[in-house]
Amino acid sequence: MTGEVPPARLDDLVDDLRSPERSTVVGIGPLTNIARVLTEWDGASGRIDRIVVMGGALAFGTMVDTNFAVDPRAARVVVRFGIPITIVPLDTTRTTCLTRDRWRAIVRRAAMKGPTAIATASAFDAWVSPWLSYSEATRPVDGMWVHDLVALVALAHPELVDSSQHRVDVRDDGKLVECPDGVPVDIVEAVDNEAMISLWERTVFDVGVAAPPS
């Protein structure tokens, strides 16, 4: 859920949250839509167990990550709202890496798995390869960071990440900062990159190279 969307899309999200089971919401873009749900729908706090956010940067000086910079007010609303929250900051996602060689190996293995895996790999390659080229030319990394994947892994496979509680707030410019009177949140501080990439490969392409984590 990223940026402003037509009201119908927001209504769709609210409809999902009205299901009998309580939900976990994952935000991997600007938090505009999630903030709108929290502030405009009275039932939000009773239907959402936790919010997992990929965004914010505690380190890197004055750098503000894109997701919080696009809508700082929304980021502050979500962080301060009172629902338990897990934040996956740029500090952690920048330790991840999908190299070009690793991606080529995934595509090669997919080619031996049959039509479905081939089609899936081809669809992914249409954006992974260009992004690898862009990332290698503009980022200090041999390959590409896989920011969003960390948020999903933190939710589905918490054994692959290390987290601890911090008190934080969001400044007017979107900068995530620690402060003694801030909101207590869980910050993902580390992720097992190799296990995460292998899990993604197995899950999406069914061509994994290692056993699932126990």
Automatic annotation (TrEMBL):
InterPro entries noted in UniProt: Inosine/uridine_hydrolase_dom, IUNH, Ribo_hydro-like
UniProt keyword Hydrolase, yes or no: yes
GO MF term (any one): purine nucleosidase activity
Pfam families named in the record: IU_nuc_hydro (PF01156)
GO biological process: purine nucleoside catabolic process
Gene3D superfamilies: Ribonucleoside hydrolase-like
GO cellular component: cytosol
Superkingdom to which the source organism belongs: Bacteria
Keywords tagged on the record: Glycosidase, Hydrolase
Protein's UniProt keywords contain Iron-sulfur: no
Signal peptide (residue range): none
Domain Inosine/uridine-preferring nucleoside hydrolase stretches: 13-195
Designated name of the protein: Inosine-uridine preferring nucleoside hydrolase
Organism: Schaalia georgiae F0490
